[in-house]
Write a structure and sequence with these properties.
The structure holds 2 protein chains of 2 kinds. Chain A is α+β, with helices and mostly antiparallel strands. Chain A is about 40% helix and about 15% strand. Chain A is built from 17 helices and 18 strands.
Amino acid sequence: MTRYIRHAAAFCALLLLALLANATRVQVVQAPTYDENPANRRNTIARYGQPRGDILVGDRAVTGSRDSGEQFRYERTYKNGPLYAPVTGFASQVYGTALLEDAADGVLAGTDRSLSLLPLWNDLARARNPGGRVVTTLDAAAQQAAYSGLGSRRGAVAALEPSTGRILALVSTPSYDPGELSGTDSAVARAWARLNGAADKPMLNRAVRQTYPPGSTFKVVTAAAALDSGVVRDVDAPTESPDPYRLPGSSARLTNEVEGCADASLRYAFQWSCNTVFAGLGVEVGPEAMRTTAAGFGFNDRKLGIPFRVSPSTFDTRVDDAQLALSSIGQYNTRATPLQMAMVAAAVANHGSVRTPYLVDRTTTADGDTVSATVRHTLRQAMNPVTAVRLREMMTDVVEKGTGMNAVVSGATVGGKSGTAQHGVHNSGTPYAWFISWAQADDSMEPAVAVAVVVEDAAADRGDISGGGDAAPIARAVMEAVLDR
Amino acid sequence: MLSPGTTAQADPPAPVVRLPRRRGIEFTLLVVAVLLSVYGYCDVGLARTGSVPPGAAGYGAGLGVLALLAHLAVRLRAPCADPLLLPIAVLLNGLGLVLIYRLDLETPGDRAAPTQLVWSTLGVGLFIAVVVILRDHRVLQRYTYVSVVTALVLLALPIFFPAVNGARIWIRVAGFSIQPGEFAKVMLALFFAGYLAANRNALAYTGRRVWLLQLPTGRVLGPILTVWLLSVGVLVLERDLGTSLLFFGLFVILLYVATGRTGWIAVGLLLAACGAFAVGWLEPHVHSRVEDWLHPFASIEAGRGPNQLAQSLFAFAAGGFLGTGLGSGHSILIGFAVKSDFILATAGEELGLAGLSAIFILYGLLVERGIRAGLSLRDPFGRLLAVGLASIVALQVFVIAGGVTGLIPLTGMAMPFLAQGGSSVVTNWIIVALLIRLSDSARGRSEEEQQHEEQHQEHREQHDGEVAP
């Protein structure tokens, strides 16, 4: 019997060896695959197992953490949530991340390898660094001014520093509190459903994710193209433009809101926003040169991220002359984000060159050591510096004696351009009121701020006046906030 | 693995070897086992709250007293017993309590550790009772048929009670849940050992020979086959697959050890294959288990989220080599049965492959020590009983550990000593008590039976015939 007992023992040993071999398979060989399975919640739990790093505006954190004691333990809180929502986005246990929370997620969650001194050791020990910080370029005062200026109206503001591309304000209204999406309880699901179902789309970031027809503010681009291409050599010379302007190859006639546009000079046409003149100039310049200039300002750029993605602004070049005429006054298929139009104003202020806009100044570890700083670089030269000087003059005229007198800031040179964009079937929608501008303090060598404002539900009376009337005061408030620093 | 010296018993004249009793080693190992458990308990508290949990002293004292009482019982009544058996049982039970306590922290509404401690106390009490009352294991052979009747009654009882989570293996009396099938394991092992010890020659040498197989007479084979079929049939009715697999394995192993006929294994495997196929085909419950085993992530791909097995695999994988540390894992994601059937996943996640291997090796040692007692014993009943009890432990560990790690289809079964479950803890303590008794007889033989053997020479001749048939 001894022999058979030994066989039984060997059988038991075999069972044990099979268990050990299989445990090694599961825990070592297959472990990485299992760890990465999206249904494995451990990554998410670890991710919320420590407080998320903060997003800073100036020296102040606009985010915080709350220990919920739940499985996804630390919930994100937001100070002034609606004010900064178009910048921070949300970090939700259930619905993931958006905007900066998404773009800088690795740093904020502590998973970014650059946060650790010894990345390899961390990988081995499965250690997690405390969440790092993201320092934004925002100017708290400018952000607040823009937000208050828009008030209860639907719209957006984008402001940036022309010489660097630093984004100073990024506001979209109506807004929402991203803190409502933190956590896992049923209130979060209700908030998500409510926010997504709301007619006025509070979670839409209108400053960078919504494109609008830019209307007359696009005339800055058309003017730059006309001057750069030599179609206009003297801004004070008559342009031989008819009024009304018959769209080429069509019987449709384009008219103006103001008098004196027939044969007006570029300076006059710009100051009073003559549609007929700019439509004609666009056709004269031609689609190819118009496209080149528009692209120089950043139109049709699909890759822009600040670091989160910015919807591309478009200038359509597959057009006939009639469509080109309309495109040149910011209608037809021309569409722009408020950030794009702020870049247009900034290019004029900054000697014709456009800096890549950016929102993150630097990222740091939890202790404040800088991990990376944004390297600023020129995006491209949008126009000749000489053209820029002429456009500066013309934009200054708009504010001093044209449609933008609501944007005057004492102690500073301000240039602007108003716009009213028609949209909807047969232009039935309430026009969008636009105002783009820049400001340079009288005692400064550099322009301090370029800003674009769009108000969706502006006062119903048509005409460029509404851009100057509704949007310009908001732009002024933002410029004053920046200049007051 | 097994020292060849143990066969020396068969060589006449047996050398007068006075085996050391090793109770001091047992005591030292018990202290280590209790300290390790208390350390684990403190570790959970430190990981969770940063402080030693308030119950640590009480837990340590309780476990220590239980270990000490058990040790005293062994020291007084089974002084020659194997010194490893009791410390392994205490360590596994202590670790199980730590793991259950640790999981209790995640389920504030369902505290299982205190209940488990009560059951463990009862288990140790029964352990002491068995060691003290049962002076000689050969007495048990008298109860061969009482055992089988008891086993069948115990197995059949739950049919009259409602099913719990798909398996009809529970009886609930006055708030207590008992799994009678657990106790039936010991009874059935007693029956198999007793019956085979009495009839093994008839099984091996009588009857007709068909091809390579020596068929025993129906009179000899009939009863045991009936018992086995009855128990498995009942279990299938109750959907307790793990236990039916265990009984099947126990039956085949003991039949093989008793008769030495390899053919039995072949027949057994053939029967098992047919049975498994039939059950898997007819029974949707089993069918889904097999499907889960073959495709553990199918439910994820179907968008229904991970099932229990997938969650268990995730837990093991998260442990890696060294584990997350006690209290720092997320095995609670497994959900239902995390404290019972899936307790090993918590060990795998928080102690890692290193800790899991240690646990497997502890079980391996327990089994090996049991089998070694069987080898050293001289009476066929004792030998078969020791091998049977050790095999129960080995098969239980294999069936449930293999199930939760995806090696074999998952069947519900309790990890001996580790898992939540009163019946299981009590039963396993009785198994260890019997092994202690058997190993005491085996190792004590050299003094006691020395005198016996001198007086009864014919006794030895009988043994010789058995060892080399």
